[in-house]
Amino acid sequence: AGAFGIPEFMPPSAADFQSKDGKVFSGLFRLRQIFRSRHFFVSMASRRAWRRSTSLRSSSSAFVSFRISFFCCSTIYSTVLASMVITDGKASLVSEENDSLRFPLFTQIAIDGRIRAYYIMEEGRVVLSDSMSVPTGTPLNERFSSMLSTLDSIENLDDMSLYLDYVETAYNDNKDNPIGSYFGIEWLKYAEPQRVDSFLNASPAGFRDTRRVKHYEEFARHRAQTAPGMKYTDFAGETGKGGTVRLSSYVKPGKYTLVDFWASWCPYCIKELPDMKQLYADYADKGFEIVGVAVRDKTDDTAAMVAKHELTWPVIYNTQRVPYDIYGFSGIPHHMLIDPDGVIVSRGESVAQIRARLQEIFGGEQ
């Protein structure tokens, strides 16, 4: 508590986990297996007592134990607030009063070390199923769940302006509760860099001064330095065989180059590959190139996806987080179009928006 400067009182929570058939399981809970192949739900209740107890029920008895932890998300790096180990369907945790924090608190639930859901700790009973990213049942969790559902619908429209308008409004409407911090961070991830200073100046110090906000504030500076109209910044990666290669090896004078930051584990990246391949087929003979840049990915996984989808453009492997730190983007796929003089034309546009640009540049009705 002292590390975060938060008043030291939060009623601890109790939880129980069960499936509709009510069978208790004991054993090692393997997150990937249970969440992909078992139907169950988690109910959690918080009460003003210093004992946390948990019971787990499932249709399977094939596992032996599992661990669930609550993480505070106020910094870049999560901090474990409380843990429960479940054995024979039950677990308990006794918390000292001076270890507690005040409700409501924005946290994440991790099971066997993997983050499974956001959870706003407040009094009341909530339900979390394997298909949910936020539990429901208490006022703030209900509101947050509904808002994330709306945000998902907006994201599907592929309209960044609408997306940013929504998260900014959501932030301003929830500055007095933990939901505001989530949407404030989401705005900082994608906002126009020139608006960041005024946005933060109008924000509460408790939000503005956190390490997580400072992190994305710095990313905004990187976006400003690599915005449309600026020269692209070079960096190094690897070939599929492990040799060193630079982005500048593929950004050729006299041609437009689309840099596609992607990864084999990114479903949105994979989903758009057919459209990318068609774009390349339509404009490759007009002075247009594509270069893929694999981020936060294993070389073997990248190579397997390149082969599976028969990508014919060059790919830079194993760049990990280097492009994030240079260009300040927070999600993939991320596209950057560079002109024949090495100047950035656009960033963060969809394949459809890039196609419209190329139609304007090269002409025709492709």
Shape: globular
Radius of gyration: 24 Å
How would a textbook summarize the main sheet? 5 strands, mixed
Sheet with the most strands: spatial strand order: 6-3-1-2-9
Describe the structure.
The protein has 366 residues and is of the alpha+beta class. The protein contains 12 helices and 16 strands. Strands 6-3-1-2-9 form a 5-stranded mixed beta sheet, with no helix packed on it. A 5-stranded mixed beta sheet has the order 14-13-12-15-16, covered by helices on one side. Strand 10 and strand 11 form a beta hairpin. Helix 2 packs antiparallel against helix 3. The N and C termini lie far apart (59 Å).
Sum this structure up briefly:
It is built from twelve helices and 16 strands. Strands 6-3-1-2-9 form a five-stranded mixed β-sheet, with no helix packed on it.
Features:
366 residues, alpha+beta, five-stranded mixed sheet, 12 helices
